[in-house]
Amino acid sequence: MTQKRANRSRQRMRSGPLTRPDAKPFDIQGRHLLCAVCVRGGCKAHLPGHSRIIRLLQAMWQYPFVTLRILADLDVNRAHYLDVYAGRGQRPLPQNFIARQKDYVGRRKDLEVCRRLGIMPGSALPAFLVYRLLFERAPTLDGICRTASTPSRVWPECPQASKGYYEKIAGHKWEGLALQTKLGEKLDGIGLWAMVRPRTRADMKAAKAASAKRIVKKADRLFIRPSHALCLICTATIPDPLPHDNLVELRQRIETDPNIPVTLTEGCCMVCDPCNVYHPGEHLCYKAHADNQLRDLMVLERLGLPPGATLSARELYTRIYKCIPSLRDICAWGDGSNTAPFWAPCGGANKGPRLEQARAKGLFVRGGPGGTQR
């Protein structure tokens, strides 16, 4: 990694104007999402929309969850054909109609990007999710900037499209959380992490040490999001702490004291501090901000509890075993449906009857105060 890239990655993830929940979306043409990748891939050409592309890259690096509103011109075709071609003039043509009509090559690219993303023009999504989707569904520029037909003067290709800048970035696979944590800032410039900033290894390591110590030695009450209460069941057979979360530490603390109070908190919790996709400044998870919040509320509804309810770990799991038949009911939405990548079922829901086994074993329920489960 170059010194410049290393310095970029070491910037801390803080709150700022772009991170506010009420911040205005960053408007960007669909095609410019691709141009930004080419710039990260080494393209030095002054691309159309260059200043906007650079501002996009700066915004995403400052805050990987910045909301992007992805634009494509649909309204140019609302002009009546007689007004356009016969000068009927019953309705005024859209503003800047002639220039917009002539931009048919760009308009096709914008709409094709929206199609690949599975959105309507004008939809707003966090940058992190936009580029996860884009790299999955458009790993190359074929059919977008590289035309599906023979290039011509009327339908030219972008002269940068065949130079591999885009594919250099988009062609990398998504890494799991364990590898992301291991690599940290070394991910800078690789795949998605060329577009958004990875968390540094030093930051994650420090967060792991401090948060694990708080759980194991200091906390007299645990704060756990309801969906993570189910994750504790999935990790019941993992013996050693994991570098990218605190599930094992929480499980072991509950096994030691099943009567410890647990507050069910919406959003990131004691599990999350060391995770690469956790933003300490804004206290959110890039990867599962929406889907896990829905799971939190689904668990609370099943248990008949409001957000912020506090009860002993023993009582919590007694209720879970009584009210939730299987992990599929929550973690896979009950029917296994996958309506979008950011609403995908959790893979743990299909890895055996873990909740049923924990219920039969009495995990976190059996054993006296200060005792472990048998």
Verbal overview:
The protein is mainly α and 374 residues long. The protein has two domains: 3-194, no CATH class; 201-361, no CATH class. Helix content is 41%, strand content 7%. It contains 16 helices and eight strands. It has helices at residues 3-10, 30-40, 50-62, 81-85, 97-102, 104-117, 127-137, 165-170, 177-183, 201-218, 226-234, 247-256, 291-303, 313-323, 328-331, 354-361, and strands at residues 26-29, 67-71, 124-126, 222-224, 261-264, 278-279, 284-285, 310-312. The strands form three sheets. A three-stranded mixed β-sheet has the order 1-2-3. Helix 2 (30-40) packs across helix 3 (50-62), helix 2 crosses helix 6 (104-117) and helix 11 (226-234) crosses helix 12. 35% of the residues are buried. Mean pLDDT is 92; it is low at 370-374.
**Count of structural domains:** 2
Helix/strand/pairing category = mainly alpha
Biggest sheet layout: 3 strands, mixed
Number of helices: 16
Helical residue percent? Answer: 40-55%
User: How large a portion of the residues is in β-strands, by DSSP E?
Assistant: 5-15%
Q: Uncertain spans, ≥5 residues at pLDDT below 50?
A: 370-374
SSE run? HEHHEHHHEHHHHEHHEEEHEHHH
Concise description?
This protein is mostly helical and 374 residues long. The chain has 2 domains: 3-194, no CATH class; 201-361, no CATH class.
